[in-house]
């Protein structure tokens, strides 16, 4: 097999890249190790920045998102039993975010790819990227019980943290920056309408809590828990009781309860691999960087990476200049580090570290009070949350 761009991974990054390339008249092949059903039910992110939503619309993949997604014009911060709303459009010149689950983004892009795009091979396991430093990289993969080779002009690794793409970059050329956090998120899906029409980020002395949603009838909620927590150790009523404590306010707001259909624990870490390019191999999304979910940046960073690559490749084909491709890693990392900074700030702002001192507790409250009382501080949060520019 031969193609211009070999894409490893059919998550939102790989699928969006395939769509962008198709619209630009550039052929590609997508290899995905899992089956279609797994990809379409894989629960991950649910917040799309303004720029990500705009890219999906421009790519022809925004119709169902605009019909079924939930536009959010702000978030609510809770601390010390008080409530403060951050109004995104008023602070950013009209920008907002969209609540639309990663599973739905993948369903939309898969349908488009199978109907209009190039080959999308499910249960095709990438085994290695070979000759990445040359003009003729190859992906060795296994599909339908036999090994095959995909010859490419370019390879884009959208295969996540555990994928093979990053391993093709020589260790002597790389730097890794990472931080692990001593807590995680116990997340639940519940068949109950959300108790608030926007996301609620709560800082509490017992730990962080987040009220989110997947639809008008399904709530998504999270609790800060110690690292390594077994989700099965929490009974349903214990979860609801703890959420109620952490979301407590001085007014008459209350938390609606309902049947819990899923419990998971998400570890928290920050990770950046530099560079994001070696020869004709380009890394995108979790293959190159991970952020704690507090800032809702993971999927959006991945979208920014593939938009940057697609623009650079189109520029190369139209002008013959490799300038933008050569700048890929530098361009992406500028945005990545701003997202890492924001996600770290949100995490340390809202989570109570094990063994935190009264001094540290008061600093957190002072930071939150500053956001609630300073338009400049509030604007910085709103601009980062709604998204950094692509490229």
The poorly predicted ranges are none
Shape: globular
Derived from helix and strand composition plus strand pairing, the structural class reads alpha+beta
Mean pLDDT: 96
Task: Produce the secondary structure layout.
Layout: E1 2-8, H1 12-23, E2 28-31, H2 36-41, E3 47-48, H3 50-58, H4 63-68, E4 70-72, E5 74-79, E6 82-87, H5 88-92, E7 97-99, H6 102-116, E8 120-121, E9 124-130, E10 138-143, E11 146-157, E12 175-190, E13 199-203, E14 209-215, E15 218-226, H7 236-246, E16 260-274, E17 277-278, E18 281-283, E19 289-290, H8 298-319, H9 323-326, H10 328-350, H11 358-373, H12 375-386
Parallel strand pairs: 1-2, 1-11, 2-8, 5-13, 11-18
Antiparallel strand pairs: 3-7, 4-7, 5-6, 9-10, 10-11, 12-15, 12-16, 13-14, 14-15, 16-19, 17-18
Helix pairs in contact: 1-6, 1-8, 8-10, 11-12
């Amino acid at each position: 097999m031969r193609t211009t761009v070999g894409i490893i991974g059919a998550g939102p990054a790989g699928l969006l890249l395939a769509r962008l390339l198709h619209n630009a008249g550039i052929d590609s092949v997508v290899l995905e190790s899992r089956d279609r059903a797994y990809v379409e039910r894989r629960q991950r992110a649910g917040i799309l920045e303004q720029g990500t939503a705009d890219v999906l619309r421009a790519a022809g993949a925004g119709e169902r998102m605009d019909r079924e997604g939930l536009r959010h014009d702000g978030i609510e911060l809770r601390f010390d039993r008080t409530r403060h709303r951050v109004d995104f459009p008023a602070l950013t010149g009209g920008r907002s975010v969209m609540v639309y689950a990663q599973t739905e983004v993948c369903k939309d892009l898969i349908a488009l790819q199978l109907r209009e795009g190039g080959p999308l091979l499910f249960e095709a396991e990438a085994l290695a990227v070979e000759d990445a430093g040359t003009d003729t990289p190859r992906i060795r993969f296994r599909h339908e019980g036999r090994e095959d080779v995909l010859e490419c002009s370019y390879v884009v690794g959208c295969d996540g943290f555990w994928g093979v793409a990053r391993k093709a970059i020589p260790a002597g050329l790389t730097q890794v920056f990472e931080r692990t956090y001593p807590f995680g998120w116990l997340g639940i899906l519940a068949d109950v309408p959300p108790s608030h029409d926007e996301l609620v980020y709560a800082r509490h002395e017992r730990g962080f809590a987040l009220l989110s949603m997947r639809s008008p009838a399904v709530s998504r909620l999270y609790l800060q828990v110690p690292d390594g927590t077994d989700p099965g150790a929490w009974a349903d009523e214990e979860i609801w009781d703890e959420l109620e404590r952490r979301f407590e306010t001085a007014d008459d707001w209350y938390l609606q309860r309902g049947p819990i259909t899923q419990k998971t624990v998400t570890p928290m870490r920050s990770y950046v691999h530099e560079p994001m390019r070696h020869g004709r191999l380009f890394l995108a999304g979790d293959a190159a960087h991970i952020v704690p979910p507090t800032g809702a940046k993971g999927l959006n960073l991945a979208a920014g990476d593939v938009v940057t690559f697609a623009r650079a490749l189109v520029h190369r084909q139209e002008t013959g200049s490799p300038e933008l491709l050569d700048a890929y890693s530098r361009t992406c990392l500028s945005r990545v580090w701003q997202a890492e900074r924001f996600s770290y700030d949100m995490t340390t702002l809202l989570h109570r570290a094990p063994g935190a001192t009264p001094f540290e507790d008061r600093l957190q409250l002072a930071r939150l009070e500053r956001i609630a009382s300073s338009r400049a501080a509030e604007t910085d949060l709103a601009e980062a949350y709604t998204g950094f520019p692509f490229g």
